[in-house]
Amino acid sequence: MEPILFYGVPSGCSFGSIVALEWLGKPYRLSRVEMVKEDFMSGGYRFINPVGETPALITSNGAVLTESMAILNHLGAGGIDTGLAFAQGTEEFDRLNRMLAYLNTSFFSSFAPLWYVYEHGGDEAAKAALRAYGGFKVRKAHADLDRMLGDKPWLLGDQKTLADAYFLGIARWTEYHDVVERADYPNIARLYRQLEEDPAVKFAHAIEDEKPVTSAGGYLGNIGVDDALKRIRLNA
């Protein structure tokens, strides 16, 4: 069975996993999860990930894998020949894993206070405090990553890796939160522009926006959550 990636809309961090699958070029399917619907957890997706988050991946063996970092490392293990990922135990793998870990913890989590305000609100004093704290965290994460990137064309050097795919899915969240100007971080801004021109990134945007698009990778089409569950049971 080809892998099935469950991706969240709008603007889920699962975006990076879609880009990664396109870059890797192997057969896969996608399953859309509307995270804004209050009843999305009442359907089949709660059997995929009881935590109620995306992405989730049904592997070619029918196993369920959640969390972006785990999914990207799993996908990368099958695409070492592409240069997008590396064999565990090598120095290159350690560098990639470190960057994924930074993006998953410091960069991703810096937006958490802002997302809470955006999604839940609260009294004005609490919202102001969370915005101030979130703004500080996001600016610090951008400044740190901008220094780490330096003048390198990609996060790890001369060649793009799965870390670059994951980066973009998170970095675009500044569109929701007016706390940082990407232009103030020129290295990040350069990388962001470069990635936005990538065909796999344009494909992922079109998938999220439900626009017609042609895959340059191994995309075999979208599948509903309930149909995905049926396929899993048939292959069990």
UniProtKB/TrEMBL annotation:
Keywords: Transferase. Pfam families: GST_C, GST_N_2. Residues 1-83 form the GST N-terminal domain. GO terms for molecular function: transferase activity. Residues 89-213 form the GST C-terminal domain. InterPro entries: Glutathione-S-Trfase_C-like, Glutathione-S-Trfase_C_sf, Glutathione_S-Trfase, Glutathione_S-Trfase_N, GST_C, Thioredoxin-like_sf. PROSITE patterns: GST_CTER, GST_NTER. CDD domains: GST_C_Beta, GST_N_Beta. This is Glutathione S-transferase family protein. It comes from Rhizobium tropici.
